[in-house]
Amino acid sequence: MTKEASDIGELPVTIEDVARMEPQLHAWSEMAARAYGFYSGINEAIKKSADKWPAAAHHASDYRQEMALMAIIRLFATMDRGSRISFQSVYRYLQTDAAIDELSNLFAAAEPPSSIEVARGAVTASVARFFEAYRAIDFKAFGRIQSFRNGQIAHISWPEIKAAKVTYSDLETLLQSVCVLAGELKLMLTGCNDWPSDEFDDSHRQAYGFWLKAIEAEASRPTRRTLDRSPKSQ
What we know:
The protein has helices at residues 2-7, 15-48, 55-79, 87-94, 99-109, 116-135, 139-143, 158-163, 168-190, 197-220, 224-228. By secondary structure, it is an all-alpha fold.
Protein backbone atom coordinates (compact mmCIF):
# COMPACT_ATOMS: atom_id res chain seq x y z
CA MET A 1 0.00 0.00 0.00
CA THR A 2 2.70 2.46 0.96
CA LYS A 3 4.74 1.22 -2.01
CA GLU A 4 2.27 2.96 -4.33
CA ALA A 5 3.10 6.36 -2.83
CA SER A 6 6.87 5.82 -3.01
CA ASP A 7 6.64 4.58 -6.60
CA ILE A 8 5.19 7.88 -7.77
CA GLY A 9 7.66 9.95 -5.77
CA GLU A 10 5.19 11.16 -3.13
CA LEU A 11 6.06 11.59 0.53
CA PRO A 12 4.23 9.40 3.06
CA VAL A 13 1.18 10.98 4.67
CA THR A 14 0.86 10.71 8.47
CA ILE A 15 -2.14 10.90 10.79
CA GLU A 16 -0.85 14.30 11.91
CA ASP A 17 -0.89 15.48 8.29
CA VAL A 18 -4.46 14.27 7.84
CA ALA A 19 -5.63 15.94 11.07
CA ARG A 20 -4.04 19.23 9.97
CA MET A 21 -5.51 19.19 6.48
CA GLU A 22 -9.05 18.16 7.50
CA PRO A 23 -10.33 21.63 8.52
CA GLN A 24 -9.13 23.17 5.25
CA LEU A 25 -10.56 20.38 3.12
CA HIS A 26 -13.87 20.65 4.94
CA ALA A 27 -13.95 24.44 4.48
CA TRP A 28 -13.19 24.17 0.74
CA SER A 29 -15.86 21.49 0.36
CA GLU A 30 -18.41 23.70 2.11
CA MET A 31 -17.46 26.64 -0.14
CA ALA A 32 -17.86 24.46 -3.22
CA ALA A 33 -21.22 23.15 -2.02
CA ARG A 34 -22.41 26.67 -1.21
CA ALA A 35 -21.33 28.01 -4.60
CA TYR A 36 -22.93 25.16 -6.50
CA GLY A 37 -26.06 25.49 -4.39
CA PHE A 38 -26.31 29.13 -5.46
CA TYR A 39 -25.80 28.08 -9.08
CA SER A 40 -28.48 25.40 -8.81
CA GLY A 41 -30.98 27.67 -7.08
CA ILE A 42 -30.53 30.45 -9.62
CA ASN A 43 -30.82 27.94 -12.44
CA GLU A 44 -34.11 26.66 -11.08
CA ALA A 45 -35.46 30.20 -10.68
CA ILE A 46 -34.59 31.08 -14.28
CA LYS A 47 -36.19 27.87 -15.57
CA LYS A 48 -39.37 28.55 -13.65
CA SER A 49 -39.57 31.97 -15.28
CA ALA A 50 -38.55 30.76 -18.73
CA ASP A 51 -41.34 32.71 -20.41
CA LYS A 52 -40.06 35.94 -18.89
CA TRP A 53 -36.56 37.24 -19.59
CA PRO A 54 -36.25 40.65 -17.94
CA ALA A 55 -32.93 42.26 -17.00
CA ALA A 56 -33.02 40.51 -13.62
CA ALA A 57 -32.85 37.14 -15.37
CA HIS A 58 -29.77 38.24 -17.33
CA HIS A 59 -28.09 39.36 -14.10
CA ALA A 60 -29.06 36.05 -12.51
CA SER A 61 -27.56 34.14 -15.43
CA ASP A 62 -24.23 35.97 -15.08
CA TYR A 63 -24.18 35.31 -11.35
CA ARG A 64 -25.09 31.68 -11.97
CA GLN A 65 -22.03 31.19 -14.17
CA GLU A 66 -19.74 32.85 -11.62
CA MET A 67 -21.00 30.50 -8.93
CA ALA A 68 -20.31 27.48 -11.14
CA LEU A 69 -16.77 28.72 -11.71
CA MET A 70 -16.26 29.23 -7.99
CA ALA A 71 -17.44 25.68 -7.35
CA ILE A 72 -14.92 24.37 -9.87
CA ILE A 73 -12.08 26.32 -8.23
CA ARG A 74 -12.93 25.01 -4.76
CA LEU A 75 -13.43 21.44 -5.92
CA PHE A 76 -10.11 21.49 -7.74
CA ALA A 77 -8.41 22.66 -4.54
CA THR A 78 -9.71 19.62 -2.66
CA MET A 79 -8.62 17.12 -5.32
CA ASP A 80 -5.36 18.57 -6.65
CA ARG A 81 -2.85 15.75 -6.53
CA GLY A 82 -0.03 18.28 -6.72
CA SER A 83 -1.09 19.84 -3.42
CA ARG A 84 -0.09 18.51 -0.01
CA ILE A 85 -3.63 19.28 1.18
CA SER A 86 -5.98 17.11 -0.87
CA PHE A 87 -8.33 14.17 -0.63
CA GLN A 88 -5.85 12.26 -2.76
CA SER A 89 -3.35 12.58 0.10
CA VAL A 90 -6.02 11.41 2.57
CA TYR A 91 -6.79 8.44 0.34
CA ARG A 92 -3.13 7.41 0.31
CA TYR A 93 -3.02 7.60 4.10
CA LEU A 94 -6.19 5.55 4.54
CA GLN A 95 -4.60 2.71 2.55
CA THR A 96 -1.77 2.34 5.08
CA ASP A 97 -1.81 -0.47 7.63
CA ALA A 98 -1.76 1.95 10.57
CA ALA A 99 -4.73 4.07 9.49
CA ILE A 100 -7.59 2.22 11.21
CA ASP A 101 -5.75 1.94 14.55
CA GLU A 102 -4.63 5.58 14.56
CA LEU A 103 -8.02 6.91 13.55
CA SER A 104 -9.79 4.71 16.09
CA ASN A 105 -7.63 6.16 18.86
CA LEU A 106 -8.59 9.69 17.83
CA PHE A 107 -12.25 8.78 17.50
CA ALA A 108 -12.33 7.09 20.93
CA ALA A 109 -10.74 10.11 22.61
CA ALA A 110 -13.07 12.66 20.98
CA GLU A 111 -16.08 14.03 22.88
CA PRO A 112 -18.06 12.14 23.93
CA PRO A 113 -15.42 9.47 24.60
CA SER A 114 -16.13 5.92 23.44
CA SER A 115 -14.55 2.51 23.77
CA ILE A 116 -11.90 1.52 21.27
CA GLU A 117 -14.18 -1.27 20.02
CA VAL A 118 -17.00 1.16 19.25
CA ALA A 119 -14.51 3.58 17.71
CA ARG A 120 -13.01 0.89 15.49
CA GLY A 121 -16.42 -0.14 14.19
CA ALA A 122 -17.41 3.45 13.39
CA VAL A 123 -14.06 4.28 11.79
CA THR A 124 -13.99 1.10 9.69
CA ALA A 125 -17.46 1.87 8.32
CA SER A 126 -16.56 5.50 7.66
CA VAL A 127 -13.36 4.57 5.83
CA ALA A 128 -15.31 2.09 3.68
CA ARG A 129 -17.78 4.84 2.70
CA PHE A 130 -14.86 7.20 1.98
CA PHE A 131 -13.29 4.62 -0.34
CA GLU A 132 -16.61 4.01 -2.09
CA ALA A 133 -17.11 7.72 -2.77
CA TYR A 134 -13.49 8.26 -3.82
CA ARG A 135 -13.40 5.32 -6.20
CA ALA A 136 -16.64 6.45 -7.81
CA ILE A 137 -15.00 9.69 -8.98
CA ASP A 138 -14.52 9.95 -12.73
CA PHE A 139 -10.88 11.05 -12.79
CA LYS A 140 -10.96 11.38 -16.57
CA ALA A 141 -13.61 14.06 -16.21
CA PHE A 142 -11.65 15.67 -13.37
CA GLY A 143 -8.53 15.58 -15.52
CA ARG A 144 -10.17 17.95 -17.99
CA ILE A 145 -9.57 20.81 -15.59
CA GLN A 146 -6.31 19.54 -14.13
CA SER A 147 -4.24 21.71 -16.46
CA PHE A 148 -5.44 24.75 -14.51
CA ARG A 149 -3.00 24.58 -11.64
CA ASN A 150 -2.26 26.71 -8.61
CA GLY A 151 -3.10 30.40 -9.09
CA GLN A 152 -3.96 29.95 -12.75
CA ILE A 153 -7.28 28.30 -11.95
CA ALA A 154 -8.43 31.42 -10.11
CA HIS A 155 -8.31 33.30 -13.42
CA ILE A 156 -10.07 30.85 -15.71
CA SER A 157 -13.13 31.95 -17.66
CA TRP A 158 -16.13 30.04 -18.89
CA PRO A 159 -14.84 29.65 -22.49
CA GLU A 160 -11.82 27.83 -21.07
CA ILE A 161 -14.06 25.53 -19.06
CA LYS A 162 -16.10 24.80 -22.18
CA ALA A 163 -12.91 24.13 -24.14
CA ALA A 164 -11.89 21.62 -21.46
CA LYS A 165 -15.31 19.95 -21.95
CA VAL A 166 -16.22 20.17 -18.29
CA THR A 167 -19.97 19.67 -17.98
CA TYR A 168 -22.42 20.64 -15.27
CA SER A 169 -23.04 16.94 -14.80
CA ASP A 170 -19.31 16.37 -14.18
CA LEU A 171 -19.32 19.22 -11.70
CA GLU A 172 -22.36 18.03 -9.77
CA THR A 173 -21.11 14.44 -9.58
CA LEU A 174 -17.71 15.55 -8.31
CA LEU A 175 -19.35 17.85 -5.76
CA GLN A 176 -21.48 15.01 -4.39
CA SER A 177 -18.40 12.82 -3.99
CA VAL A 178 -16.34 15.56 -2.34
CA CYS A 179 -19.14 16.34 0.14
CA VAL A 180 -19.14 12.68 1.18
CA LEU A 181 -15.33 12.62 1.48
CA ALA A 182 -15.30 15.74 3.68
CA GLY A 183 -18.11 14.50 5.89
CA GLU A 184 -16.60 11.06 6.37
CA LEU A 185 -13.15 12.49 7.11
CA LYS A 186 -14.64 14.76 9.78
CA LEU A 187 -16.54 11.80 11.24
CA MET A 188 -13.60 9.40 11.39
CA LEU A 189 -11.32 12.00 13.01
CA THR A 190 -13.72 13.56 15.51
CA GLY A 191 -16.92 11.52 15.68
CA CYS A 192 -18.86 14.62 14.58
CA ASN A 193 -21.51 14.69 11.86
CA ASP A 194 -20.90 17.78 9.74
CA TRP A 195 -21.84 17.40 6.08
CA PRO A 196 -21.01 20.04 3.43
CA SER A 197 -24.05 18.90 1.45
CA ASP A 198 -26.15 20.82 3.99
CA GLU A 199 -24.56 24.01 2.63
CA PHE A 200 -25.75 23.08 -0.84
CA ASP A 201 -29.34 22.64 0.29
CA ASP A 202 -29.43 25.93 2.22
CA SER A 203 -27.78 27.93 -0.57
CA HIS A 204 -30.09 26.43 -3.20
CA ARG A 205 -33.19 27.47 -1.25
CA GLN A 206 -31.87 30.98 -0.61
CA ALA A 207 -30.83 31.61 -4.20
CA TYR A 208 -34.00 30.14 -5.66
CA GLY A 209 -36.28 32.20 -3.43
CA PHE A 210 -34.40 35.47 -3.94
CA TRP A 211 -33.94 35.31 -7.70
CA LEU A 212 -37.40 33.95 -8.46
CA LYS A 213 -38.94 36.93 -6.64
CA ALA A 214 -36.56 39.35 -8.38
CA ILE A 215 -37.23 37.96 -11.86
CA GLU A 216 -40.98 37.76 -11.41
CA ALA A 217 -41.19 41.22 -9.83
CA GLU A 218 -39.40 42.83 -12.74
CA ALA A 219 -41.31 40.81 -15.32
CA SER A 220 -44.62 41.96 -13.80
CA ARG A 221 -43.78 45.67 -13.99
CA PRO A 222 -45.51 47.60 -16.77
CA THR A 223 -43.14 48.54 -19.57
CA ARG A 224 -42.81 52.06 -20.94
CA ARG A 225 -44.81 51.02 -24.01
CA THR A 226 -47.62 49.72 -21.79
CA LEU A 227 -47.65 52.98 -19.83
CA ASP A 228 -47.78 55.04 -23.03
CA ARG A 229 -50.90 53.16 -24.11
CA SER A 230 -52.67 53.52 -20.77
CA PRO A 231 -55.87 55.63 -20.62
CA LYS A 232 -54.08 58.43 -18.75
CA SER A 233 -51.58 58.94 -21.51
CA GLN A 234 -54.17 59.17 -24.25
